Amino acid sequence: MLSAEELVMRYGDRRALDGFSLEVRSGEVTGLIGHNGAGKSTFVEVVAGLVRPASGRVRVCGVDALERPCDARALLGVAPQELALYPTVTVREHLRLFAGLAGIRRASARRAVGAVAEELMLGEVLDRRCGVLSGGQRRRAQAAAAMVGTPCVLLLDEPTAGADPETRQALLAAVRARAAAGAAVLYTTHYLPELVDLDATLAVARRGRVVARGGRAELTADLPGEIRLSLDPARPRPALPAEIAGRARDDGPHALRVATRNPSADLATLLAAGCAPLSVDVRRPDLDDLYRSLATRDLAADAAA
Ligand SMILES: Nc1ncnc2c1ncn2[C@@H]1O[C@H](COP(=O)(O)OP(=O)(O)OP(=O)(O)O)[C@@H](O)[C@H]1O
Description:
α3 (91-101) crosses α4 (106-119). This protein has 11 helices and 14 strands. 36% of the residues lie in helices and 27% in strands. The two termini are 37 Å apart. With 305 residues, the protein is of the alpha/beta class. It folds into 2 domains: 2-219, P-loop containing nucleotide triphosphate hydrolases (Rossmann fold, 3-Layer(aba) Sandwich), CATH 3.40.50.300; 224-284, Alpha-Beta Plaits (2-Layer Sandwich), CATH 3.30.70. Bound molecules: adenosine-5'-triphosphate. Residues 11, 14, 16, 34, 36-42, 81 line the site of adenosine-5'-triphosphate.
């Protein structure tokens, strides 16, 4: 389990973390999302012991990561956002090194390297130097190095950035398998559909702290979904009822989108008002809506400040 309390991390007078608290349970994948500069990578770096916060606490499987960084590091698998592989070392040597650092003995390490290489489609490049790998192969090698020691906490910072669909699927499957085996996984990404694939809980970071935390259904429950109506170009557009007009926007010349918490009631109102759509799509609120609603709330808060 990973837990962080009230972390503060400053770069000069900028607070990269400003009271950042988060808990990820064993067996849970938590998607850490938020705008550029929200503090996601800084949090990963603090947990990994790469930078030291001014205050706060971090525990990795019960070990105080600020008091005992080496002990905590041995329990962690980390794939940082920036690719960090030794260019002159082969993938196999790299993975053996990380297996060794995790305390796995030679024969078991050989098996662990073979297993993770197969899982992440690295078999063909195991004996190539990391410096000559393609971008996607490097991503997979970096993720494999994080996973080879079967860590109890796995930190993956945008592991699929620039990855092709096959690499992405292999990485997501490997992450799901680690969580199923009991690891606590922190996964930062800007590709929100991945978090659905991972069945992840969410933590939304903003300006150095977590401002929303919970399951996807829970966090999107109060958000409006949307009705999209395709309109008949041959018919004049009816005037929209007042209770709907404020939530409606044109989507091209012959389509309309209406933000709604009650699709059937709004649709009935539109039909009664003379709207005769050619087709109707109803969309439940999703992670994009959550992200947009938080961004809008941020803009409103900034304007008020
Ligand atoms: N080494 C550093 N020196 C100075 N400022 C830094 C350093 N690293 C990060 N920062 C600042 O700390 C803040 C948080 O950055 P961080 O990289 O954690 O954001 P992020 O949420 O990971 O962003 P992104 O989505 O772009 O990866 C930013 O304002 C950034 O400019």
